[in-house]
Amino acid sequence: MKTPEFNNVHLFDRLCWAKDNLEGYQSEYRVVWEDPDAPDECAKVTIPDPNWMACALQGGILPPVWVYHELADDEAKPDFKKHTRGYLLHQTEPVGPMTEEQAIEYLVMKDIPRRVWQDHDMANKPRFCITTKECLPKTREWRNAWRLDINNEEENIKEVA
Amino acid sequence: MSSRLVVNQIQDSAAKNIDTTFVTNGSAKAWCSIDGDSTVNDSFNISGTVENGNGDNTYNITNAMENATYAVSGMSKSDDNGGVRAAFMQFAANQTSIATGFFRLTSQYDNTNVREAEYASTIVHGELA
Asked: Which chain B positions have a beta carbon within 8 Å of A89's beta carbon?
């Protein structure tokens, strides 16, 4: 199906069209990342949305990723109250069709904080990796395994014994 | 777009008029249903989720909201079939849990532990950017 001409069409309207006309695409890719500003938090897993993936693969719907960075910069200002440059989402020419891998890279830059990926090649250790769902453990218990449950100390001691 | 309907007001059968913005402003701007491993079952205006830990999820929005004072509601289902437990959702504590492009919710049970839900659903109301 061909994407309609969406220049200057509100992004919300484009998403409505996509919801009506595109089949969701459930990607097997996952992004595992750590936030250097929150070293005590466990690793996080970003999971792409199937309807968003369908938009990315289709092309002509999503704005370029720099638009999100501009809005994030606006929001980071101390006197931010509300977005006044939301038109960037709607009036910037949409990006063309992406491969699944390109879509995941776009998603990394849109949804993961810039401090995680911007200088990743200069960091002492990797902060994120793109992997597949089957490479992740079925349960996520291991990521919280370091946390002590001080409220149930006696119970924990019994378990260890 | 193949067609466009331009109206400022809608009238019901009792001749009562309301502005169309009354309807558009009150409609949900995003919604999402995820399962226990944070995979999205279905959604609208969501680009992806982040599993921050057990029962702790961030939802990223495609068409950002105008400000960070929009409303989020959510429900989750307990995965504990051994007994009847309430499972509810709240904004994650001690961190930024809402911004124009995302919100972060935890799924908690009645014993206050943050735990994975069998599935969870959320709805967003507010103004779009």
From this structure: 63-64, 129
With CA atoms as reference, the chain A residue closest to B56 would be: A44
Contact criterion met (CB < 8 Å) for B40 and A47: yes
- The answer to whether A59 touches A100, Cβ cutoff 8 Å, is no
Domain ranges of chain A: 11-160
> What does the pLDDT average to over B91-100?
84
Distance CA A37, CA A34 (A): 9
Strand, helix or coil for residue A148? coil
Residue A51 with chain B: CB contacts under 8 Å: 40, 42-44, 46
Return the axis-axis angle of helices A50-58 and A11-21, rounded to nearest 10°. Answer: 100
Tokens, residue B23: 């309807």
Residues in chain A within 8 Å Cβ distance of B39: 26, 47, 133
Q: How far is A71 from chain B (nearest CA, A)?
A: 9
The letter for the amino acid at A28 is: E
Q: Are B61 and B45 in contact (CB under 8 A)?
A: yes
Are residues B3 and A11 in contact, defined by beta-carbon separation less than 8 angstroms? no
Contact between B129 and A89 using a beta-carbon 8 Å cutoff: yes
Class of domain B29-125: mainly beta
Q: What is the pLDDT of residues B35-64, one digit of tens each?
A: 888 899 999 999 999 998 888 899 999 999
